[in-house]
Amino acid sequence: MTVSSQANSHEYGAPRNRLLMAISDRLFLASMAAIGGVYVLLIAGLLAADIAYMVKQSWLAASDQEGWTAVVVNSPILDALRDPKIRYSIRLSLIACTLSALLSLLVAVPLGYLMSRVAFPGRRLLDAFLDIPIVLPPLVVGLSLLILFQFRPFSWLAPAIVYQVPAVVVAQFSVACAFAVRTMKSTFDQIDPRCEQVARSLGCSRFQAFSLVVFPEADRGMITALTLAWARSLGEFGPLLIFAGSTRMKTEVLSTSVFLEMNVGNLEAAVAVSLIMVAGAIVVLVLTRLLGGTTPGQTVLAPNLGRSVGRRDESGDHNRPAPVADPRGTAGEDEERNDRSGSRP
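The chain above was modelled as a monomer; its predicted structure follows.
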């Protein structure tokens, strides 16, 4: 054995000690889990601290009473739900977040499709431009909206929007839509464009190819974008405070309720509202996971694609479906020709 072959025996592909490899693999995975576990423990600690504080305050409020029923009845969460101002903020939050998420999805689907499929001048610049609401401080977004509605034609709508209920939806939409657009662009990037090209080659217009082939494939991405926009709208605070205000029983949502309760020194109510927001976000995320569309990687070709893509024949019939190519190619044609002639090679 030469010196070079002996050196190569210690390189990639050479037999290794299985015990040492197993120990190395476990150490690698343990180090990765330790690094990622720090953030997981941080999130768990935040939630556990809020719950522990609620249990403590409930226990103190029911110290002069007996039984677990008294602890539950005197819970700060139930006290917050009994408050009409908190109930109004919950109702307004649900309505505003839903409208904002639907508007975000309505804009994100066409914009994400254009950014993914169409090459046009300035696409990279537009791609970076759409991330501005994500990287800007929330207070700056709200201040910019407030200044925008001082100029025409937005100033004509300012009395009906600024510091009114519609301002809540506009402020949430201005930030949440950027997350939805980014999600839909990634969704369309992961869809194989060859299916759309096949539909175009069979006579589909671009609208037909999008609605029959691409749109059904993007269902899970749309659910994710809708959920992300809804959750982002629920947690929005800065733009709401500047552009919509925090007026009780008018523009107050859950995030501003926490701020208002903190201002009056009602820490128990602030923590209770925070836990209500956490519970709402968890419910939405769980429902999204349960109702998520098809399995990843499953290709769905619309069943009515063949009926909508017809080929004009000699009699002028538009509804005859286009022929399907033989998967055996030219070899299959030669085999059929030899069978008909009674000879095989």
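Residues 293-333, 338-345 have pLDDT under 50 and may be disordered.
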